[in-house]
Structures are given as C-alpha cells and as structure tokens.
Amino acid sequence: MHEQPPTPERPELTALQLARLDYARRDLESARAEDLTQLPADGLILLVARLCTRLDDTLCLVREISPPRPPAAHP
Known about the structure:
Radius of gyration: 17 Å
Strand content: under 5%
Shape: flat
Number of strands: 0
Oligomer: single chain
C-alpha cells in the first residue's frame, strides 16, 4: 500500500497510530489465512473477539484523525 503525503484533510499519523493500523492489518491477514473449518468453537470465539477489538480501535483512530464535524441541523 502506498502512503500518501499528509494534507489538511489527511493528517500525518503518529508512530502509535501507524502501529495500531498495522496490528489491525496483521490480525485481519491472519484471520483470512486461517482455515476456519479447522478451528474449534473456542478458537472461533477468540478470533471474532480479537477482530472486534481491532475494529473498535480502528474506528476510534478514525475519530481521532477526522476533523470535527459541525452538529447536524434538525429541520
């Protein structure tokens, strides 16, 4: 994946933020490589829990780096 230069819309990520993305990417690649039919039920539960944790962290990261949005006006 090619890194794009930072812009006001796309800020430069810190080392910690890059590491968080890398961990999420590795966990996803690992899950894709697993033969899910061979995993016992507890292994599947752990895999799903790990992916849920990574998804939550990635969504938090998106909120961290996204510019604040003005509150929506209700008609």
